[in-house]
Write a structure and sequence with these properties.
The structure is a single chain. The chain is α/β, with parallel strands linked by helices. The chain has 2 domains: 10-222, Type I PLP-dependent aspartate aminotransferase-like (Major domain) (Aspartate Aminotransferase, domain 2); 226-341, Alpha-Beta Complex (Aspartate Aminotransferase, domain 1), CATH 3.90.1150. It has helices at residues 10-22, 37-49, 64-71, 89-98, 122-135, 159-162, 172-175, 190-204, 209-221, 224-249, 275-284, 314-341; strands spanning 32-35, 55-60, 76-83, 86-87, 106-108, 139-142, 167-171, 184-187, 255-256, 264-268, 290-291, 304-308. The strands form 2 sheets. Strands 1-8-7-6-5-2-3-4 form an 8-stranded mixed β-sheet, with helices on both faces. The model has no long low-confidence stretch (mean pLDDT 96). The structure holds pyridoxal-5'-phosphate. Pyridoxal-5'-phosphate binds next to helix 2. Belongs to the class-I pyridoxal-phosphate-dependent aminotransferase family.
């Protein structure tokens, strides 16, 4: 078993070209760098772009693994809020006016956001590309959940399909339910890809050949579209179970997003509930969530929780949300009774 090319095993890059075609992204094999998951791509991007105290932009909330990768290189993170239609491009425009230093890039998860469960509208995608061109802003598009859309008629063009200047990240972790394979990829303009390749060589010479060859062979033997369709249907059913259970068991002063794909629901609790403090109680009831504050580079998000319906079975989802609803209710009641006697 030998090292493979630092760019990644050619046979696997050929398959990645096919996935990208499904996103209307036309690339050659030498436009792709295979990485140890999309997470390594985030780290390499941090390594080549960020000098200490450089400003970068992320959505708020944002994927915690990206925040940690960028913070690790000393980035100062400025945030732009999301709403139900994804990144608020008008707020990005305002934010750009207030920055003293030009940001190195904007990091965005346009599809089926982790943690927010929202998807950027088609109009906003076009607006974002237009703004980025005008302001010379580099965009990192993390499309980890691409193809996991529940409605095949929903068409959300990848940002990279709208502009070749966008750096695009993909992964086998979510679409093939194979995070243990540790395989992801980057598509980037030539000059950037060369720098990423040097950084990759310094980090680990190449991504593990065994995992790449096994994945290539799997894809040679099995057409991937039916598998993705089958998994997406399973996730959609679980999402419906979770949304139904939230309606049934969560108190009325709470709200949540309704994902069009992916794995996550983002739940807002009353402002006085600190979900990090609430986690221990939930674990006592044998149910877990990720406290919202983890997805912000600052103090925000304390009254949010991220729920994932990807792994548990439908019955477990129903049970888990029932127990969590009880924990939330008792937190709210506790606060109200303290307030009454203060
Ligand atoms: C948005 C996003 N990007 C990247 C990753 C990392 O994926 P990988 O397993 O390919 O490293 C994740 C994992 O949860 C993710 O949610």
């Amino acid at each position: 078993l030998q090292y493979c090319a630092s760019e990644g095993h050619l046979g696997l890059r050929k398959h990645i070209i096919e996935f990208l075609k499904a996103e209307n992204i036309a690339v050659h094999d030498d436009d792709i760098l295979i990485t140890v998951g999309a997470q390594q791509a985030l780290d390499l991007i941090g390594k080549i772009f960020i000098d200490k105290n450089d400003t970068i932009l992320t959505e708020s909330p944002s994927y915690v693994g990206a925040l940690n990768a960028f913070l690790g290189y000393g980035a100062k993170i400025e945030t732009v809020p999301l709403d139900n239609n994804g990144l608020q491009v008008n707020k990005l425009k305002e934010k750009l006016k207030t920055l003293k230093k030009k940001p190195k890039f904007l990091y965005s998860v346009p599809n089926f956001h982790n943690p927010a469960g929202v998807t950027m509208s088609k109009k906003r995608r076009h607006d974002l590309i237009e703004l980025a061109e005008k302001e010379d802003l580099l965009i990192i598009e993390d499309n980890a959940y691409s193809m996991l859309g529940f409605n095949p008629d929903d068409k959300f063009p990848a940002l990279r399909s709208l502009s070749e200047d966008v750096i695009y990240l993909g992964t086998f972790s979510k679409i093939f339910f194979a995070p243990g394979a540790r395989l992801g990829w980057v598509v980037a303009p030539k000059a950037v890809l060369e720098k990423l390749l040097l950084a990759k060589q310094a980090a680990d010479l190449c991504t593990g050949t065994l995992s790449q060859v096994i994945t290539e062979e799997y894809l040679n033997l099995k057409p991937w579209r039916p598998r993705v369709k089958q998994m997406t249907k399973i996730y959609e059913n679980k999402k419906d179970v979770m949304l139904g259970a939230l309606e049934k068991y969560f108190p009325k002063d709470t709200s949540w997003t309704k994902p069009k794909g992916g794995f996550y629901i983002w739940v807002k609790l009353p402002y006085f509930v600190d979900t990090t403090q609430m986690l221990a109680e939930a674990i006592n009831e044998k149910v877990a969530f990720v406290p919202g504050n983890n997805f912000y580079p600052d103090d925000d998000g304390k009254n949010f929780i991220r729920l994932s319906y990807c792994l548990p079975e439908a019955k477990e989802i129903e049970q888990g949300i029932k127990r969590l609803g009880q924990v939330v209710k008792s937190r709210i009641e506790l606060y109200r009774s303290f307030k009454k006697y203060r």
